[in-house]
Predict the structure.
Amino acid sequence: MAEKVYDVAIIGAGVSGCSIARELSRRRGSFVVLEREDDVCCGTTKANSAIVHAGYDAMPGSLMARLNVEGSRLMPGLCEELGVDLANIGSLVVCTDPEARPGLDDLLARGEKNGVEGLRIVERDELRAMEPNIADAAVAALYAPTASIVNPFQLNVALAENATTNGVEFRFDCPVGSVRRGQDGLWHLGVPDGEVVAHVVVNAAGVYADGFHNQVSAQKLTITPRRGQYFVLDTTAGTHVRHTIFAQPTRMGKGVLVSPTTAGNLLVGPTAEDIDDKQGTDTTSEGLDEVRRKSAITVKDVPLRETITSFSGLRAHQPGHDFVIGEVEGAPGFVDCAAIESPGLSASPAVGRMVAGIVTDILGLPQNPSFDGHRDAPVNLERLTPAEWADLIARNPAYGRIVCRCRHISEGQIVDAIHAPLGARSLDAVKRRTEACMGRCQAGFCTPKIMEILAREVPGLAMEDVTKCGPGSGFIVGHDKHLAPAGKGGDAR
Amino acid sequence: MRHADVVVIGGGPAGLAAAIAARQGADRSVLVIERDVKLDGILNQCIHNGFGLITFNEELTGPEYAARFEQRAREAGVDFLLDSMVLDISNDRVVTCVSAGHGLVQVQAGAVVLAMGCRERPRGALNIPGFRPAGVYTAGTAQRLVNIEGLMPGREVVILGSGDIGLIMARRMTLEGAHVACVAELMPFSGGLKRNIVQCLDDFQIPLLLSHTVTRVEGEKRVEAVWVSEVDEHLRPIPGTEVRYPCDTLLLSVGLLPENELSRQAGVELSRVTRGPVVNESLETSVPGIFACGNVLHVHDLVDYVSQEAAVAGAHAAAFADAQAAGRELAAAHEVPVEAAGGIRYTVPQSIDPARMPDRLTVRFRVGGVYEHRAVCVYLDGERILRRKRDILVPGQMEQVDLRREDLLAHGTLDKITLTLEEA
Amino acid sequence: MTEEKRRLTCIRCPRGCALEVTLVDGVVATVTGNSCRRGDVYARAEVTNPTRVVTSSVPVAGSATAHMVSVKTAGDVPKGAVFSVMEALRDVTVQAPVRIGDVALANVAGTGVDVVATRNA
């Protein structure tokens, strides 16, 4: 049997790869997304500030600036269409050093040059009225009313779900090794069970993008994982600030942000550490100390004792500090979508359009007349009136059975997440789709229950085989009095 | 809207004992709302023995202890709403809950007893650096997996924290076939009961490392090792003392937190020390008609004390509901604050009205450190009325003293009651 | 005559009394530090023939409400037999319905003590 030849193979199912996939699905063609992890949203997209930046930060004329502003304009419509949580809360870049005050004007000017709307400087009194917990030293701030917060898990999942509904194939646990252009002029990607062959390859591999790029180009690309560590505070702290609070960058370096999240938590971070390890998503005591210290620069009394978890994520940084997007010279049909560091989430709708446009031009793909860009938002109990909820329970009692008691997530929602397109197969996948386990008990109560539901709903999945995040991350190593020998069971999968 | 004279939130040991007491003496409707499909709360998974010595004068396992209270509650005619999660308690005592079987239900309560229990402090609250792989569990989650599901969450185990659940799980994991390398405790003393150190650790030669903590978790997908360091007197890890323990599991037993989200919604004032409601001699919170007991009020060491305390709360809730039903106003309270001093971290109750207190009132408290050869003293505005010698007081153990109403009344005007520790 | 003193922590109740046992020629002469009679009994047993209650869970078949039933030894077993008790329970499955006190395994590991259910299922 002849191997299937795809029109496009996208490496990476993060927000960039999935945005590209969805945009491509507006066209007729065969598309596949190859993801090394067990789910979408497992790299940079799952661990960042969850901000839709207004776009004043990037240098005018850069790709970053253009796609940030364009992406943040597209974001509300996209979130509406895909049923993703977005809140337009605005952001403040806070100046706490009177001498650095002119820097805010520069930032304002830069933002206006980038085309950001509504920017203005707010002075001390107005700033305090807007943010009662702003640091006493704050003298003024740049206010960006278009800045928003978004749920990055939902966005990534929704893009992927909608892409697959429109015909895009996804392969998980499918790390790409070698990339080579064959005599046939096609791209051959080495994967665990053989090869994937495609006319066009899109390299959206996050911190690993340089590895693929450098296989096909003499112009070497270096992606440095830039680690950012964060604290997540309980929803009891979620209203400590109302806007996303940035610190004005000074000679002393960049500060950390303090921001509400769409789920009502407070996010504090990140650090910015260039590291060598592309899997170095561990937190360090030094990093967490730094976040703790810096959070006090812009916001007073940040209730860090309400911390429910800490995490770290890696941004795909390259020395030129701009996105690297385009067909690689000397490698026809190999399209980079690399170095998508902050504001990559904000830019993702525009990144998707741009890359899909490049690919469409290469292949001349026709319109897909059956494309449907709408995705129903999953059930969100908090958005329902009591009558609506009661009605829902009458139709399906599972929506009345609360599994995650911290966030009030019902069994019905978890079952929906499992049976959705590209449905959840692991605990973290359930977590990203439903926000179960993201509350203050951090999965202490609901882990066994969600394992049970997964085992019941996923054909062939036994409770003892449920994982946290795919192969090698099993929870269970045997039955009472019957431990599997080491190397079997959870840790061997 | 449904009505019940007394609504009890939570069907664990506290809720059951409160409900039984609320049914005493009159034919009141008492409704227990429980989020699980089964009553008895956490006792279901506490299959070890050591329960009931005070209540039943025999040593029972958790499920046996709970079964006796469950049977009493059923015989007493308590109503139950199982598999139902309370979403909201209003300050005029309308309780809203949701369940698969009944949908959204609202109940107007004459009085409410909070008995939601507590949850375990998760890893995130400790900020242990490192990765976030599978294999990190709170001791209670592991307990549920092993005892209720029959599934083993690990084979080579390090335990952080020497709370009782951690100690109990050290033994359970060992008996079921795992190996426990050590129990690391941040403080220079254990937070668990001495008997548990003997029968859960010493019996199995499991080392207890006092003044140690976990400083790093290795393993991206599943725990591969944890690093344990000694800490200095400021509880900071001492560089150079790290020891790497290859393992696949880290269990956390690092404290219990009363679950007071509902209390907060109802406007109940919470103590920063106990993280539970501030209560008066009737175990009534700052919101009239809302009472609290058990681990939602303050974390207990023994279930027997939970049952005792809950019975008091249940009886007072019933009295409040009776007065409501009869349109009677309860006499206004003249609450005297109870101050915790000299190493005592907190007291429950936090205030007492001598006129309303019973002839004997149990005041429960915990100390903040290890104290040897002390006397627990009670002062009424500087006049000592009680002095009880104790050989040793430790934070892991709840203490209590009984106050006599006649002593308080005899004192006359009273501004402050002080509990303190003095040299014996 | 040899006199030996041993310090123990009583495990019979949560109070955890610090006990001191004096043995004369290997025979218990006195027990001090205990607050009740149980402590005395415990101390004497602990230095001569220590015993424990063992608790565990075993699978239950045919129950709609539970996968596992908690069990205990109905009385103390020799401390040295604890792991033999666990081994004996290794392949025990009980059949629903089960009531508290039902025997799951009689005379476990030859100790003369039964293993009984501690929950209904």
The two ends of chain B are 57 Å apart (CA to CA).
